[in-house]
Amino acid sequence: MTTEAQAAAPREHPWRMPANWWTRNRRYFLYVVREFTVVPIAAWLLWMLLEIKRADGGPAHYYPPSSTAFVVFSVIVLLFSLYHSFTFLSLAGVIIHVKVLDRPVPSRLIVLSQFALWAVASVVVGFVLIWFAR
Amino acid sequence: MSIRKDVLPIDGEVGRRPGGARRVAYPHLIYWFLFAQGGVVAALLVPVHVLIQGILGPLGIVPVVDRHYDTWVAMLGNPIVKLYLLVLIAVPFFHIAHRVRYLLTDFGVKSAKSLPAQIISYGGAVVITLITIWVLLTTVPIKLG
Amino acid sequence: MADKRITIQTTRYDPDKDEKPRLQSYEIPFYDDSMVVLDALNYIKSNVDGSLSYRWSCRMGICGSCGMMVNGTPKLSCSAFLRDYWPRPIVVEPLNNFPVIRDLVIDMDDFMQKLKSIRPWIIRKQEIPLGAGAHYQTNEQIDDFRQFSECINCMLCYAACPVYGLNNEFLGPAAIALARRYNLDSRDQGLKQRLPVIADNEGVWECSFVGECSVVCPKGVDPAKAIQQTKLDTTMRFILPYGNRD
Questions:
Q1: Domain around C61
Q2: How is domain A3-131 classified at the architecture level of CATH?
Q3: B127 has a chain C CB within 8 A of its CB
Q4: Gap between the Cα atoms of C173 and C223, Å rounded
Q5: Neighbours of C53 (CB within 10 A)
Q6: What is the ipTM of this complex?
Q7: Which of B16, B73, C15, C161 is the most core-located residue (most Cβ within 10 A)?
Q8: What is the pTM of this model?
Q9: Residue numbers of the domain that contains B31
Q10: Residue-by-residue DSSP string for C99-134
């Protein structure tokens, strides 16, 4: 557009994104919750790092965490990490596209395979964590 | 004048964005790849650890390897365990860094998209990776068998 | 039986007179259960206030002209039935995330430029001579991209996308889905030309998979899927050294 045309053209009303956009719709809100799940996960992983470091102090200084506060913290983290896993693995079904014998694999099957993988990994890790505590 | 000056007329050169030629943004490609890997690790492995080490163990419902010094140390000496713990702890931080950066943008913090923000967030994940390596190497020497 | 009436609250903005847009209320007869928001707007324009401005054309959900916010959700006004909202008032506003030219009419220049930027046509390295005849495709080859070809360019996905709302530089759902439509077309050889547009730093990487674009799409294009698959394909193309390249 020439400058004369621009000068003659009427004024558009510009778009401004409202700061509370993510509260206006249930799906936007759940999206923010989904993104936020990484914060409790980060906190827990850092705890894990500390838990490893604490083995350095020798048996006299080692005590496993038992406080109610810690269990409450873990419950909160578990809820967020479960939501993270459910959403991440479900959405992986949308992203992953494979063809078997020239036919696309239905996304439901792919999602199912992700959840199956999750179940197997959890059983294996759970077993190791419990079995070697004997 | 609030007519958008940065939008070219339709009959202008196809797709030429003011500011120069377009090219594949390889850093973003790498960030996304690391985000995806970290997401897989966190999604598959974190919940069971939280459930067992964070809830069932402290409540005494099941015996857990980190409830006693000797079992915990025996586990931590194993090099495969050290490798597993490196993956479990460090890789998700690239996922975490990516999501935190994007979440901040969603809340209107435009600087979260800037290069310094990228360096701080993914660089932070690298730092945590290095710290994790250091902790795993210095806590409980490697014992085979 | 009393005549049914319904209240429509619609945005009015005259750039010559108004400082900013405002809502104006109209109470109109709801004379037929098949009435849609577009019918209501047409009634207002014909009988109450001829100055109301809005885009529409086919009135049957295929032209993509009549996109607007209906009670905060991007919808085609020809496909939003009054009976789903009555007796409560219906708020009709111009599509989110776009500048408003007047009343319910938004500036779509940015959208048009983005569509064009991804080169939405068959690109061949070597043109097939006319004498060689038709370029055949199997049904399976068409199925590969069929879904992404259903886009009617209605911009509801852009109105739904918070990333676009926060950053107008983002290439956006429809443009990326259209690019994928061509990249997946067996007749097309233009992936390399489109890649610098769809995978630059305002391209697919800006998307954080909110997914609202696919929720509001009236044609089931699933642009969110197109974007995520583009991210994956582009990444694999870079990471796998010899596989997956043209």
A1: 5-106
A2: Up-down Bundle (1.20)
A3: no
A4: 5
A5: 15
A6: 0.92
A7: C161
A8: 0.92
A9: 26-138
A10: -EEETTEE--HHHHHHHHHT--S---SSPPPGGG--
